[in-house]
Amino acid sequence: MKKAAGLVFVSMMIIFGCTRKAAPTIPDRPVEPVAGNKTDTADFNSSNPLVAGKAIFEIKCTKCHKAKNTADWTTDEWRPILNSMVKKAKLNELQVSQVTQYVNAHAKK
Ligand code: HEC
Q1: Residue to substitute in 44, 84, 85, 106 for testing ligand 1 pocket (most ligand atoms within 8 angstroms of CB)
Q2: In this predicted model, what pLDDT tens digit does every residue of 15-29 receive, in sequence order?
Q3: Taking a C-beta distance cutoff of 8 angstroms, is the pair 49, 101 a contact?
Q4: Which residues fall within 8 angstroms of residue 97, CB to CB, at 6 or more apart?
């Protein structure tokens, strides 16, 4: 009985020892940010409206279409577009202000 238990123990050692050695090392993969789920990133909460605005533009404004080129429209042309888009993107007042500042800073001159 004692012998059998010892044998089991030894076999376990061999099996688990080998398993551990044979186990492939899983590389640490960077966790990919999920689009639209970036609200907890530093950028999104940045106190710099241009940084926060860029994050909003790249995340919230790309849910329905690709990121538009801010330089395709002047600030005046952007105004009505943004008015309708911020509603589509369901932005709050602060986000509207941030994305507007970002867009205006990069609008056609
Ligand atoms: C709920 C979907 C949705 C969201 C969110 C959205 N858009 Fe749009 N957007 C559209 C649709 C639909 C159009 C018209 C088709 C197109 O141009 O792709 C459009 C068009 C545009 C255009 C082109 C306007 C023109 O006159 O050609 C711009 C610029 C734009 N969106 C910017 C934005 C910005 C900036 C945001 C974020 C604040 C945003 N969109 C968020 C749906 C959306």
Answers
A1: 85
A2: 565 555 665 566 565
A3: yes
A4: 49
